[in-house]
Amino acid sequence: MFFTMMRGIVRFLLFVLNGNSEFQNKIALPQNENYILVAPHRTWWDPLYMAVGARPKKFSFMAKEELFKNPILRFILIHANAFPVDRKKPGPSAIKTPVKLLKNTDLSLIMFPSGTRHATELKGGMALIAKMAKVKIVPCVYQGPLTFKDLLKRKKVTMRFGEPIDISDVKKIDKEGMAVVEMRIQTAFDQLDRAIDPNFKYIVK
């Protein structure tokens, strides 16, 4: 209930701030199963657009543990289905917690395989979680304003969802298996970017 309420508030705020968004190929989103929704991390608000665009599906997500030190923010994050992760030294819970949520609740998971907005290399956590939870990976990309100033100028935001990627044929998430998964995800990201704008190039702000 809290997540749905918060998403409604976020949706309203994004409309007020920008009001010029388009969500493409929503038909690709699985309807009756959990999945991991992944994207290249390009702005601090792209996870908000991901959660809004993929509604009515509800999500959990990882947040750096430092954010949970503030009691007010901690309350909001926990009730919005967030769980803490130590980015410098992620422990077993960084894998076990999302796997449990994907298996035992109606929550899907939002993840950024590259981790930060300043990295492009895909990490292995996404593949391991998907394999252990036996869920598909759904790629999506954000194209639009990269600064808050440009967002307020109501420059168009486009988010496109891709077809679910099944990695059940990848036998082991070792170095070789990870390379296969990363290739599939990166190929999907590139195809989605070209489908929106063939000339698109992401430049870190």
Question: Tags for this entry?
Answer:
single chain; 205 residues; alpha/beta; 7-stranded mixed beta sheet
Explain what you see.
The protein is α/β, with parallel strands linked by helices. 40% of the residues lie in helices and 17% in strands. The protein has seven helices and seven strands; from the N terminus they run αββαβαβαβαβαβα. It has helices spanning 2-17, 46-53, 71-79, 93-104, 125-133, 148-152, 175-196, and strands at residues 21-24, 35-38, 59-64, 82-85, 108-111, 136-143, 157-161. It has a seven-stranded mixed sheet with strand order 1-7-6-2-5-3-4, sandwiched between helices. Helix 1 (2-17) packs across helix 2 (46-53) and helix 4 (93-104) packs parallel to helix 5. The radius of gyration is 16 Å and the shape is globular.
Give a brief outline of the structure.
The protein has 7 helices and 7 strands, in the order αββαβαβαβαβαβα. It has 205 residues and is of the alpha/beta class.
Q: In percent, how much strand structure appears in the residues?
A: 15-25%
Strand count: 7
Q: What share of the residues lie within helices?
A: 25-40%
Strand order in the sheet with the most strands: 1-7-6-2-5-3-4
User: If you compute it from the alpha carbons, what radius of gyration comes out, rounded to the nearest whole angstrom?
Assistant: 16 Å
H/E order of the elements? HEEHEHEHEHEHEH
- Structural class of the secondary structure composition? alpha/beta
Q: Tell me about the largest β-sheet.
A: 7 strands, mixed
What is the overall silhouette?
Answer: globular
